[in-house]
Design brief:
A: alpha+beta, globular, B: 9-stranded mixed sheet, about 20% helix, elongated
Amino acid sequence: MEYKKGVIDRIEDGRIAVIFLEDDLKRYDLPVSLLPAEAREGDWLRLTISDDKVIKIEINKDETDKRRKRITEKFLRLRKKK
Amino acid sequence: MKNDRFKLIYKLKSLLLVSIVFFTFSLSSCSKLYKLPENKGLRVSFIDVGQGDAILIEFNKGDKILIDGGEKNGKALTFLNNAKIKEIDKMLATHPHSDHIGGLVEILKNISVKSVYTNEDIATTPIYEEFLDVIEKKGLNIETLKREDKIKVKEIVSLLPSMDDIKTNKDLFLLFLNNDEIYLDLDSLSQKLNCKSSYIAEEKRVILEGEDLLIELQIDSKKIKVNGEEKKISNPPMVVSNKILIPLKDLVVKILYGNFDYSYNVKEVNVSYKGKKYKINFSNIDKPLLAITNGKIICTLPIRIISEILGAKVGWDHKERKYTIWIDEFKIEIWIDKLEVKVNDETINLPIPPMIINEKAFIPFSPILEAIGGSIEVDFDIKDMKAEIPKIHNLRVLNPPSKLFPDINNNSIVLKFDYNDITFLFSGDAEKEAENDMLKSKLNLNATILKLGHHGSSSSSTERYLNAITPEVAIYMAGKGNPYGHPHKEVLDRLEKIGVKVYGTDVNGSIVITTDGKSYSIGTER
């Protein structure tokens, strides 16, 4: 059993969540029913993985906030002023 | 009329600026070669990147635009490399999901990109952060887009006819002067400029009217009016063989800010007559003038050649605009602007009429010499010919609206591109909500070719949206056996019901549309 950080890239057709792991870009396509009800696109997660299977998913709010802040700053820096 | 008497060393490739080079490329996943079809003006490649979008828009000459890049799986980059794309002028990420931006990261790292466009949404994923990091590292900015924005893209249009035009268009008339001037007939020119033309015969006035361009010319006059402003050109328009011929040089360079170039070299002219051969030196007389019409290349020579070389006597009848030439037992009568010539009262026909240019007469001598048992050989070389003008097109942004949706897919940049009569609508991953909003906003959605929203998912492509577009062809971009079931059957059924031809990258591989702006053809990898 191991713990990994992952992020919901997108939820396809409201049914399947596409989750990328932080380190090696490995991805999981999981039914949304396995996700916490409040999970949204862009949320970072704490995944419990056993035998390459995700057995538990928790929302990692701190990680989400940290990344969102950092990436938003980068985006705003790069965005051309109109 | 035989023109094979002319020995023409004729560098067609450089003359006509036709790209005869076919691109071949192999796909990373298989060794099979797919030949990209020849670009007839615009080529749009819907690249098979598996589950994801990547669309390359290329003018035959001009900007290269990339919309999305699929996942970070090397496929879009491989396609670009094999198509020998060295630079992307405009890169656009419709929205920040990995199946649209992943491949863009690889392309940014490996190919020069001039500008990047996205919407205002961000993602918190490592791939999106890498996308921003590489943009920053390359010293680029991001320009964000919303409805009513336009991306200006440049096409370089050659005013010279293509090889196909020369072969098939009997009405085409192209005339090369030896003083760096090329004349093109008015109809062909107005087609190339995509504008209306008219000729007021009694005033000898020519009018070319485009979207924001009004050009007025006068036959035999060097005055030209451009949007009401009077300017001067170095050669006047003229009428030859009932064709209105427009000089291109100053029009291209001074009026339309394009490039004009042309090198003309007459190597040798050999005349044989009565068993004797005469080599003509052009150092002190006018060089031959060359015309392309009726699918043929015709060389006309100054009248002095015959009189001086063959020792003929030449008379000029000003009233009749007629030359009479006496050589030995032959009496030859030649009328300016007339196709008929008389040799000892027998009529022969010329391919183009004799003409007076800059007060000098040029005659298509070959058939005349043949009629009196002689012949003529012209060895010349035309190369580096260029008459190109820049033309700006708009890619119009139809979505997202200024008030964004809560959902990332719905904020996808939706683009409309009208390439003359053939129109494209690229829907990104826009879903029903965005479609309904575009419908509600009464945007003109009508398009010939539709890139279906969201990989053919039933989240998108509502009946109302499709009916507003009324496409002839719809393309979805999806990976074979993708876990989301794209394309969805409901969408395919809707398209079938309204008789739309459907292509998909899962079935067809890469799908390449080429168009000249009037008609289009579709090539597929499989």
